[in-house]
Specification:
With 114 residues, the chain is α+β, with helices and mostly antiparallel strands. It has a single domain (5-113), classed as STM4215-like (2-Layer Sandwich). Helices cover 20% and strands 41% of the residues. It contains two helices and six strands; from the N terminus they run αβββαβββ. Strands 1, 2, 3, 4, 5 and 6 form a six-stranded mixed β-sheet that branches. The radius of gyration is 15 Å and the shape is elongated. The two termini are 16 Å apart.
């Protein structure tokens, strides 16, 4: 198991302020939230070598989330992850777009594959 969240936060913060888990406040928008859905060994025959990582990333804004969501998507694809899911989440007052990314990380060289 490898922890990619510190590096992920640094890269997300270049797009918009990011929060692990759920945002504590919606006063400063846009913002991004993120958390693991899965971080476990993908190949038990090679323990400590490959980790399957699934990350949930949500974009919150008062108006369209498209620009921030597209930037997050481009950044994650460039890292080697694939987007498994993306959808608008209905809300009356805040725009919310959720995405799920998956990749298998080689813990020896940090390369992401599928």
């Amino acid at each position: 198991m490898i922890d990619i969240l510190p590096e992920l936060k640094a890269e997300l913060d270049q797009i918009a302020p990011s929060h692990k888990g759920y945002p504590k406040s919606f006063k400063d928008l846009p913002c991004i939230s993120y958390y693991y859905q899965n971080n476990g060994e993908d190949y038990p025959a090679l323990p400590g070598v490959f980790s399957e990582i699934v990350v949930q990333i949500d974009v919150w804004n008062k108006r369209s989330t498209s620009n921030v969501s597209n930037s997050v998507n481009d950044m994650m694809l460039a890292k080697g992850f694939i987007r498994e899911y993306g959808a608008d989440v209905p809300s009356d007052d805040i725009k919310h777009y959720t995405m799920r990314f998956r990749g298998v990380v080689n813990e020896r060289n940090l390369l992401v594959s599928q």
